[in-house]
Amino acid sequence: MNNLTQIRRLKKLHLCIQTANTGSPKALAKRFGISQRSLYNLIDILKDLDATIYYCRKRKTYYYEDESFDMNVEVKIEVTNKGVVKTLSAIGNK
After folding, report:
1. Which is deepest, 14, 29, 38, 63, by most CB within 10 Å?
2. Does the pTM exceed 0.85?
3. In the chain, where do the E strands start and end?
4. In this structure, are residues 79 and 68 in contact, taking their beta carbons and an 8 Å threshold?
């Protein structure tokens, strides 16, 4: 379920950027347990969604230029087998 992991990370990154509480790219990648390249790929996904993201070297944090940018993520996977419904994963926004 690699895609779900990426969605979770994207949601977590968005919340960190929204609160301007990311730390340096190296520290943030370490906190997420990913490489810096993977972190930059996540940032690129947000930019593809028209988020204007900057990094402040003085405060050591990423932030949104337009604070009105928001992202709502909702994913729910249910499997029904022989009348039994099993929820595999549910990701909500907050």
Report:
1. 14
2. no
3. 53-56, 61-64, 75-81, 84-91
4. no
